[in-house]
């Protein structure tokens, strides 16, 4: 008796579909179908995962140090070497400025104290008398005039004396032409003192132009012959027991005389004063 042969099903077996296990929410829904479903909220963005084989290390921000890139490494090194030098220069300049400010403050303070203690006043000068000889205008030849000038010097300071040093000069001019020259005597003038002295001025072989000679003749005829006297005197002031450095006293006087003789009288006069401290 022959066996019955059944045809073999060659189709591949169907793969069973694996379902994920139900979530807690689905189980609750299955057990309690009447309960309302929760509304799904907005899903937060998931952080980007690093590629496989990498590690993520978290470091506090205050412990992160920046390193210059390789192309700026040489520049960074050069600037780093320069920084201490600049700081040193700035420090030196600051010290120097501070020292100068302190020095100027002390000098100003000392000057203010000296002024308040001694109350310095400028000396004043005036021309008291002029005697003239040797100014012969009748001849066309050179002249050698002489002037004896009486000067009154007043020192109004109560606590300061004046030393008149060597190197002074007194010149007499007429219309820009130097007629005679001389110097002041060397002496010491006490505080709060008036000193009157005579200085002799001489000129030698002075050639007068026709214009200057004519102006002098016209001045004599009018009784107003103009002259300018320029006095320069190096002095030292005695403040207490201390002498100052040399200071040049400058006096410029414009005056007129009525005639060119020993008995000449001064018609008008006016003097300007000044000092050169250095």
TrEMBL record:
Single biological process term from Gene Ontology: defense response to other organism
Biased composition (Basic and acidic residues): 1-11
Location of this chain's protein in the cell: Membrane
Keyword Electron transport: no
InterPro entries with a match to the protein in the record: LEA_2 (IPR004864), NDR1-like (IPR044839)
Residues that span the membrane, as ranges: 88-118
Keyword rRNA processing: no
Main localization, broad class: membrane
Domain Late embryogenesis abundant protein LEA-2 subgroup, residue spans: 150-253
PANTHER family: LATE EMBRYOGENESIS ABUNDANT (LEA) HYDROXYPROLINE-RICH GLYCOPROTEIN FAMILY, OS05G0199100 PROTEIN
Name used for this protein in its record: Late embryogenesis abundant protein LEA-2 subgroup domain-containing protein
Organism, scientific name: Populus deltoides
């Amino acid at each position: 008796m022959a066996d019955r042969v059944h045809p073999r099903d060659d189709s591949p077996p169907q793969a069973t579909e694996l379902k994920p296990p139900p979530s807690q929410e689905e189980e609750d829904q299955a057990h309690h179908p009447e309960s309302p479903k929760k509304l799904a909220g907005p899903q937060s963005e998931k952080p980007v995962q690093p590629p496989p084989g990498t590690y993520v290390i978290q470091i506090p921000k205050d412990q992160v140090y920046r390193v210059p890139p390789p192309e700026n490494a040489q520049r960074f090194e050069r600037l780093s070497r320069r920084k201490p030098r600049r700081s040193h220069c700035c420090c030196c300049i600051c010290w120097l400025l501070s020292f100068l400010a302190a020095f100027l403050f002390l000098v100003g303070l000392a000057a203010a104290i000296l002024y308040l203690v001694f109350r310095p006043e400028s000396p004043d000068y005036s021309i008291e008398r002029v005697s003239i000889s040797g100014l012969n205008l009748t001849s066309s030849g050179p002249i050698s005039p002489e002037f004896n000038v009486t000067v009154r010097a007043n020192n109004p300071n109560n606590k300061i004396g004046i030393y008149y040093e060597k190197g002074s000069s007194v010149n007499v001019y007429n219309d820009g032409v130097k007629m005679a020259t001389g110097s002041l005597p060397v002496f010491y003038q006490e505080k709060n003192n008036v000193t009157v002295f005579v200085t002799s001025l001489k000129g030698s072989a002075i050639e007068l132009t026709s214009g200057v000679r004519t102006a002098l003749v016209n001045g004599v005829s009018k009784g107003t012959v103009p002259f300018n006297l320029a006095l320069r005197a190096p002095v030292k002031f005695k403040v207490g027991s201390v002498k100052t450095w040399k200071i040049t006293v400058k006096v410029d006087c414009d005056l007129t005389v009525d005639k060119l003789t020993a008995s000449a009288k001064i018609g008008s006069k006016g003097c300007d004063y000044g000092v050169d401290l250095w």
